[in-house]
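Suppose you are handed only these lines of text.
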Amino acid sequence: MQSALFLIVFALTTLAAASPSVAGPAAQSQKLPPVSYVCPMAGDEDVIEDAPGLCRKCRMQLEPIRLDAAWTCPVHAAVMKDAPGKCPIDRRELVQVTVAVSWTCPGTTVDVLTPGSCVNGAPMVKKFTARAHGNHNPQHGGLFFMAPDNWHHLEGTYPRAGVFRLYLYDDYTKPLPRDQVRKTTARLVLKEVFDPATRTAKEEFAVPLVPAQNGRYLEARVGKMSFPARMTAKIKFQPAAPEHRFDFAFAEYSTVPVMPRTTGNAAVPAPAPAPEAGNTAGTPAPRNAVSTAASTAAVAAPSGGASSIGIDPGLVPLPVPDSVPEILAQLEQRTEQVRRFIDQGAFASVYVPAFQAKDLGLALDERTKDLEADGRRTVDPAIKRLVRSAWLLDAFGDLGNREHITEAFAQFVAAVKDVQAAFAVKK
Ligand SMILES: [Zn+2]
Ligand SMILES: [Zn+2]
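From them, the structure of the protein bound to zinc ion can be written out as follows.
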C-alpha cells in the first residue's frame, strides 16, 4: 500500500516537473489577478513591485508576473486547485501556496499573462507555476522553518516518544536531493545552559542527527521527554556554511491527519479549513508555523479542539460580503488584524488577514462604477497598492524581518485609507 502510493506520488511528481499543472477551461472566466513585477534572481523573491524597472537589490530587469493563491496537497505538489478542499490522493486538507498564473496552448511553448485563443481557435489553458518560497507548509505534521540563507527550508517532527525527525527541503519546499542531504551536518541539542561569564549558551547534552535508512529524513534519539518537548537543531548545510539554529517546542506528538473519505459531494458547506495536528495554535493554514528568526521557538499546540475554540479571528477566512459598506467594514477589521499580528510578532500569520484584505480590495474594484469621477481616479491606483502591499506583507512575514514588514504595513495602511476615501465620496 505504502509503496504503491509512493509510486503514484512519484509518477505525479515527475509529471509535474515535465509540465506545470493545468486547470480546466472553466477556471478561465474568473477575474485576472493583477500584474506585478518580480526579480528573476533566486533569493530576491521578496522583491515585488507594481511597475516595471530594476530590482532594488540586484539591479536586474524586473519581469511581469501574475501572482495568485492556489491550493495544493501537503505532500502531492502536482495537485493544484483554485480553491480550498481535500487532496484527491490522500484526503488531507489542501494548503495554500503562492503561484504564478499564465496561459498556454497545449503542446506549444506559448506562455502569456493574458488569456487568448490558440492557432486552432481553442481557448488558451490556465497554467499554475510554483514560486520559490510559495509554499511554507509542513508536510509531515511538524514545525516548519525557513533557513536564514533564504533557500533551505526544514521541518522537525516528534512522531513518538524518543524520536526526532528532520526533513530538509529546497527553495520550492521539495525534499532536498540526497547528495545535498549528505553534505549536511546536524545535531540536536537537548540541554543548553547559559553561561553569564562568556555570555554564550553552553551545550550540556547533544545527539547527532543522522540520515535514516530510507534517506527521507535525519533522525535523532532523544530519550524520554515531557511536554512541551523542547529541542534545538543546529545545522550546517555545507561544510563551509555557517551553522544555523532552529528551536522546536512540541506540545504533543506530531501526527499527519488522515481525512475520512466523504461520500456525497458538496452537500455540506465547507467549514473553515481545519488546522493540521501539531501546528501552532489553531491556524487555518499550517504555514503559520514558519519562522526564520532562529531564536524564536515555534510551539506546537494540541490539535484537539483547535478547530472549534481559540482560533484568532484574524486567521479565519470569511466570504467577501456583497455591499460596499460591508466590504469596507471588513477591510477595516482585516487591517486591524494585520496590525495586531505585527505587534505580537506573529509575522507568519500576517498573510491570512492581508490576503483577505487583498480579496476585499479586488471585490471593491468591481464596484467602482457608482463612484464619482474623482473617486474613480484615485481608487484604481489605491487598490493596486493595496494588492501589492498585501503580497509584500506575505513575503516579509515569512522572512520574519520586522523592519521590512512594518514598512510594507505603512504602505498597506495608506492604500486602505485611500480606498476608503474614494468610496466615502457619494454620487
Ligand atoms: Zn534582484
Ligand atoms: Zn521560504
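What can we learn from it? The chain has three domains: 2-130, 143-250, 293-426. The longest strand covers residues 200-211.
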